Each structure stands twice: as C-alpha cells, then as structure tokens.
Amino acid sequence: MTASRIFLARVAGVPVFDPNGDQVGRVRDAVARPRAAGSPRVVGLVAEMPMRRRIFLPIGRVEAIDAEAVVLGTGTLNLRRFEKRQGELLVLEQLLDRRVTVAATDASATVVDVAMEVDRSGNWSLNKVAIREYTGLLTRRGQLRQVSWSEVRGLAGIGDHHGTAGILALLHDMRPADLANALQDLNDKRRFEVAEALDDERLADVLEELPEHDQIEILAALAPERAADILEEMNPDDAADLLAELPEGEQEALLDLMEPDEAQPVRQLLAYTEGTAGSVMTSEPVILAPDATVAEALARIREPQLAPAVAAQVFVARPPMATPTGRYLGVVFFQRLLREPPSALVGGMIDSDIDPLSPEAPLGEITQRMATYNLVAMPVVDDKDRLVGAVTVDDVLDHLLPRDWRDRATVPVPAVPNG
C-alpha cells in the first residue's frame, strides 16, 4: 500500500519490480515539472538498470511505492535511455544539500530531503521539505524540521519573481490544457503578459481550454486586431462559443475584423439556438467526395491538427465540399479504411444506416443516439440534405458539464479510493 507522503531520499536505491515480480532496476531519482504557482508536480521516477542504464518510469505506471520497493502496474516499459528535458527538475540530484532561506525568518538552511504527496485526483507534487535550519545558537549542527514548499526560498519553481521569458521557457512543452491550468495559477498581470507573448496558434489552443471568464478577460486585454487573429486560429465552434459570451456589438466588431472566409462559419454557428446540435457542432469535419480514394482519406485523417474524434471517420457528400455541402451520402469509419486497398473509392464503402442529426436536435437526443450506436461523432444535415457539420463526443461533454468545469477553483476533485 502506498503512503500519501513519500520522502524521496528514503526510496533512493530501493528495487523496482514489474507486475510479475521481476526486478527491473533501482530508484535513483524523481522527475518534477515546475508549475506557474505552487509546488512542482512529480511526473515520474528515474530507475537504474543493469550496466548503469537509466530509464524513465511515468508516475502513472507506479502501482505501489514505499521504503522497501516500487511496484509497477501493467503496460509496456520504455527502455529508452532517460534524458532530462528543459525545465524539468531532478529532485535528489538538484535539491539535496541545496542552501535555501526560510521565508518567515530569513534563516539559512540546507535541504535534507523532499517529500512528494498525492492529492485526491492521484497527482503527486513536491509539498514538504526537510531542512536543517541554522540559527545563532545552533551554528554547527542546525535544527532539523519539516516545512511546506512555499515556506522556503531558493527552490525550483515558477512564481512572480520569474520574468515572462522564464515562465514561457518552463511552459514551452506543456499541452494546451496543462498550460491553461498554469495560466490560471498566475496573477492577472502575469497571465496577460504570458498570453501576449504566445504566438497566435498556441494562444488559440490555450483559450479553448480555459474557463469562459478567463477567455473573455484575455481576449479583452488584446488589441482588437490581435483578438480577431486569435479567433481565426480557433476551431469555429470554440470561437462561436466565446463570441456568444460577448455583447452583440463586440461580437460584430470582432467578426468584421476577421477574414470573411474565417468569419462565415462562425456566423453560421452563432445563428443556431443554444443547446442544439447546430450550436455545438464543428463546421469543419473531414469531408470527401465519393470518388476520393482510401489513400486520400487516410492522408486527411492523419493531419496532426485534427482532434481524435474528428479523425475517427470521414463524411461523404456531393460537391461543394465546404459546409453546407452538396447532398450528404453517408460516413466511412477509419477502421473500414484500414481494411480496404488504397486505390478503392470511399463511395463504395459508405455506411448510410445511421440517420443524421438535424441542426435543431437537443443535447438529450444527441447524447442518447451517440450512446446507442457507440459513436464518437455524428453528422448534422439540414432540411435540404446538406451536411452542415458534425457533433463530436467532446463537443457534447463540453456542453453537458457545468459551465465552469474548466475553472480549477470550482471543479470538485474526486476522492481516491483506499487500498
């Protein structure tokens, strides 16, 4: 059974076992990633194998850990040699014996050990530090005590004392959702500075992961022309959701600043009633003509910018290919594409058994039908049999969850079961 707090110096050298009970190696260090505020998050352990080869063990693979052993859960073990990435922290190598300052007293101290703690969502963070504090009376040996990470100056992390460039360097490799969380940890001034420094595509990806009130505040802090550029980089459905929160005059002003071909699908989405398929769909699914080949279809769904739910199928329609298309014919799922020769035409493998949604279909109907047919996306077709978009499972979840579900201050954290 794993304790909720682990002092890392005490597990250095303990054996690591795979699920079969075979020893993989021994723990040599822990890898943490600084965050915009608060203590660094532990992302994995470094294990040393025979011949002094060191590998990375993601913390999610660790089934149990204590002072006797580390046990891994099932899964493939990546044997590639460990290399520390920019911004990562090797806890034992970089922190043990480091001279630090106790914030409350300005007393000098030395780091003796660092503890990681697990929260109720299962994430591990460096939250406690064992230090030897030197006072006027104990100058030779010092006093051992435990303090919180935030009580010590001189440890690794991101804070307001870092410049924007330093914060950007630490956040460089984060996924958009993680970067959005990091931005929420910053004060308003620093958040706007970081947002201003991000390029348009990166900022658009991050805005899509932020709560609505943060989206609006950041967009309002940008020059109108830059705000329009960011909206152009966003998925049309996300841009429409954001603009729907603005007063009508501000909506129209930003739409007028956007390129007409970028603004048009956003305008179309804004015209649908809230809570319907039309209001939550993406207007840019993968659409092909019936004479397109399997090779062309596979090339389209391999495009890296496509979300997995969008890339799970191609929709087939008569020209024109942009929504609203010509007559909708049906869908071809990617598993079918993988089974057919590259030269085969998608028009010969269309699945037309699933009735498409109408733009006015309510969320309850969408959810029920997607669950009934085990689908991750459904076509939306208007009364003229034209494909106008597709509703994906992430669109549905985004609108079924509470409006503030992305806000870290309000989202309830599930408890981790004992045992």
TrEMBL record:
Signal peptide: none
Taxonomic superkingdom: Bacteria
An annotated GO cellular component: membrane
SMART domains: CBS (SM00116), MgtE_N (SM00924)
Gene3D superfamilies: CBS-domain, MgtE N-terminal domain-like
PROSITE patterns: CBS
Domain CBS: 349-408
GO molecular function, one term: magnesium ion transmembrane transporter activity
Keywords (A to Z) from UniProt: CBS domain
The protein's name in its UniProt record: Magnesium transporter
Species in which this protein is naturally found: Virgisporangium ochraceum
